[in-house]
Sequence to fold (368 residues):
Amino acid sequence: MTRYITAFLLFLFILASCKKSGDNPIPNPVVVNPVTDTLYFPPINSTEWSATAPASLGWNLSQLDSVYAYLQLKKTRAFIVLKNGKIVAERYFGTFTADSNWYWASAGKTVTAMLTGIAQQEGILRITDKTSQYLGTGWTSLPAAKEDLITVRHQLTMTTGLDDGVSPDNDCTTPACLQYKADAGSRWAYHNAPYTLMDKVIEQASGTTFNNYFQMKIRDRIGMKGLWLPSGYNNVYFSDARSMARFGLLMLNRGKWSQTPILSDDGFFQAQVNSSQSMNPSYGYLTWLNGKSSYMLPGFQAVLPGMLTPNAPADMYAALGKNDQKVYVVPSQKLVVIRMGESAGNVQLALSSFDNELWGKLKLAIGY
Fold:
């Protein structure tokens, strides 16, 4: 947490964009009739974002108030719900406002996955390539034959086979910390270090910085704000809540911003939001998947039966980060749900009991 705070202060210094207000106004909401057949996309470089009144969708307003009370109790900073791309709910808590910035933690992994797909469609890398093609031989402490087994796809699927229990810091990305546990592709383990090195892979492939490539290919093209900042060994994204919602909307529209292709390789997108391997079917390309028969948790090798989030729609997929940073996408309902804030009570990587509790309350409010 200290690392995130340090990086966060640097982010505030760079952007100087946190305006405080006790009233937490929502910029330029426009209430319009609900649209069910097409998705709305807010204009780029504007605070304008059309809204839909929850009552017009038949939502239960008293239950929605219960959601807000629960979120406040759980130390939430920002909460947004989009329906068909339009804002149905947007709340900020305490001194946090629409202009405030917060860290995404591992929810940024899903962004990196999409950026990798863009790099592949541009022909500057292939996910079947050996990672050593971009990081050089000896990027791990493995024998050459074992290191050569690791591909970019293994980094995207958490199946590098590298030991995720290295002490004292399994986020460490130095070769000495990247030790053999199993052959690549034979073991699933949630491991930040090989994921973090995806940034270097993309930098080597693109010939520019990770921040610059992301800004050119995703951020500026869909009107996001924010910046990737180093935090210990990790690289963490910071932005306002609406930028997170913009990325969720891009995911909902399968990599297109309105009619503009951002990720035009639909095959890659489909692979990203479907089971990437059989060991943990609830994981795609750096993206969590609901509705599967079993799942695994970060830090454990046990396979647990059932769906990730039973209270949520089965087709939901999500970008999930430490201390309950959430981007939920539900294609069947055309929903995007965003949560930023402090830990809701269980300090865990990615998943926590908060996911199912929140969706239990949303289910009563939305009525799906």
User: Anything to note?
Assistant: Residues 12-36 have pLDDT under 50 and may be disordered.
